[in-house]
Amino acid sequence: MILLETADAMRAWSRARRAEGHTIGFAPTMGALHEGHASLARAAVRECGVAVASIFVNPAQFAPNEDFDKYPRTFEADRAMLEGIGVHALYLPSARDMYPESYSTYVEVGGVSQGLCGGSRPHFFRGVATVVTKLFNAVEPDRAYFGQKDAQQCAVIRRMARDLDTGIEIVQMPIVREADGLAMSSRNRYLGPEERTRALCISRSLFEAGRRMGGGLKDAAAVAAGVREGMAETRIDYVELVDAETMRPVAAVDRPVLLAAAAWVGDTRLIDNILFTPEAPKEDASCC
Ligand code: PAF
Which atom of ligand 1 is nearest to the CA of 58? Predict the structure, then answer.
């Protein structure tokens, strides 16, 4: 696995691979890798001629009061994991190269970045869309892989990739969970044992809501209320049922929906979600 530290070196490598006839798959990360990231890198290796991963803890997506300084940095383990998976190139830009002095260009994605995490972290999607644009410009991938755990991030990047005519296919990979249901996250390592147990109420409540929707519950307020009740042991940031594509709130489960939750467990903010698609109504044979 080759390590590349500048956008120019990254682009030159990618262009040489493309000239050899390869497609390029890309898994962008902030490091502190877990099985969720591994699933993105594996898909890139499996589905593309060459696979690139990046590690960059992006200061632009953290507010001053957030965890940028304490965000886990585990470079040696990350490198070994990506190498073991068969990733061909690892892009490691520096903050100085990414955001040189007098840097002043940002990407804002309207609509889908409002509400949910965009509501409680107003700086977040501007930082994500900006860094992902820069990473795309360096890697020039054909396909880029993102995890459904950050479902709104996926929607923002899909919209950005489409609106800006990038030609890049955005692939959303399913959430990878611990055996007991906790969604994998780099921030899970902040949790103490008691908090780790308490955090389980998030996935448990979402799964229960999924069962209720499967059983025919359509009222969005009732679905969300059930989840809130189940998450009483946490400090809830939001629980919302939204259209799976636009991220706008829905009143009823009458289309593919995302049921998304964010909550604080101690000092750690966790997010999780489930996607749900109601069955199409059966055609009435007696009609017409
Ligand atoms: O999901 C993440 O790890 C980050 O938000 C991303 C997409 C790598 C941008 O910094």
Answer: 10
Q: Which atom of ligand 1 is nearest to the CA of 29?
A: 8
186-276: CATH superfamily: Pantoate-beta-alanine ligase, C-terminal domain (3.30.1300.10)
Residue 83's pLDDT band, with cuts at 50, 70 and 90, is very high
The torsion region of residue 216 among left (phi > 0), alpha (psi -120 to 50) and beta comes to left
Cα(132) to ligand 1 centroid in Å equals 8
Of 22, 37, 88, 123, the catalytic one is 37
Spans of all domains in the chain:
2-173, 186-276
Residue 278 half-sphere exposure, CB side, CA atoms within 13 Å?
Answer: 18
- Nearest CA to 82 out of 52, 48, 50 is that of 52
Q: Which residue's CA lies nearest to atom 8 of ligand 1?
A: 29
pLDDT in tens, 250-281: 999 999 999 999 999 999 999 999 999 999 87
State the CATH class of domain 2-173: alpha beta
Residue 284: predicted pLDDT: 58
Q: Is 135 in the pocket of ligand 1 (CB under 6 A)?
A: no
pLDDT category of residue 287 using cuts at 50, 70 and 90: low
Q: How many CA atoms lie within 13 A of 232 on its CB side?
A: 4
Q: Does residue 37 carry a catalytic annotation? A: yes
% of residues, the chain, pLDDT over 70: 98
Answer whether 127 contacts ligand 1 (Cβ < 6 A). Answer: no
- What pLDDT, on the 0 to 100 scale, is given for residue 103? 98
Averaged confidence pLDDT in the chain: 97
**Dist. CA 49 → ligand 1 center (Å):** 23
Q: What is the spatial order of strands in the sheet that 50-55 belongs to? A: 2-4, 89-91, 50-55, 24-29, 143-147, 169-173
Cβ 185 under 6 angstroms from ligand 1: no
